[in-house]
Specification:
Blueprint (H helix, E strand, L loop, with lengths): L2 H7 L6 H9 L12 H21 L14 E5 L7 H6 L3 E6 L2 H13 L5 E4 L2 H6 L5 E7 L8 H10 L1 E12 L3 H14 L16 H9 L3 E12 L4 E5 L5 E8 L2
Parallel strand pairs: 1-2, 1-4, 2-3, 4-5
Antiparallel strand pairs: 5-8, 6-7, 6-8
Length: about 250
Amino acid sequence: MSAAAESALKPTTVDPGEVEKFSKMAAEWWDPFGKFKPLHKFNPVRLAYIRDGACAHFARDRRAKLPLQGLRLLDVGCGGGLVAEPMARLGAEVVGVDASETNIKVAKLHAEEGGLNIDYRAGTVESLVEAGEAPFDIVLNLEAVEHVADIDLFLQSSAALVRPGGFMIVATINRTLKAFALAKVGAEYILGWLPRGTHDPRKFVKPEEIKMALGGAGMTVTASAGVAYNPLLDIWRVSENTDVNYMLTAVKAG
């Protein structure tokens, strides 16, 4: 069997349809009023959650100018860099990986314009594992897991990239009727927050499924939080309700 044929038979996390969908919207990553407007609105909540979780885990002062200095961070499914750039500004050494080369081109250009040194790569988590990539203190999987072809492979490969004593944050959408009504029907068809077809509700993931996949990879979920939208104030906030959007923190034993 040729090397190309053998490679084609390997399990992959890439869903070509999802990659194509986000590649077509790549030019709008940094437009706060474009197709990624919901992510721009949502970003302050998840950035604060990441910063505070990392500072608590690594005994850092979250009020410091560079609280993540000296920590190596991987942003999986980094898109145009909406999370990678703030993490770099907090002092982290950031690697961003995305299956879409178009997304990576946009991310690189924007980082260069902002004078940021971020190592962006077109690829997948499993390719990083195969290449023997050095482990990271922090691995972020934000709004990515619901777009991959093989969730278990994706999470297990991501876990393999966390160093002992490091941690991972996964943010995604729960597979519930409430999530279908709000995150799919409401956000895409009624409110028009997202382009129709952005999410496939069959790919929504229950927290228990993520916990099981990470547990098999040597990681323990230590914290969870929901994220809820307040229509009166037009802001997102951390919530105890994980029925729709939620975030999980998992730690690898040292």
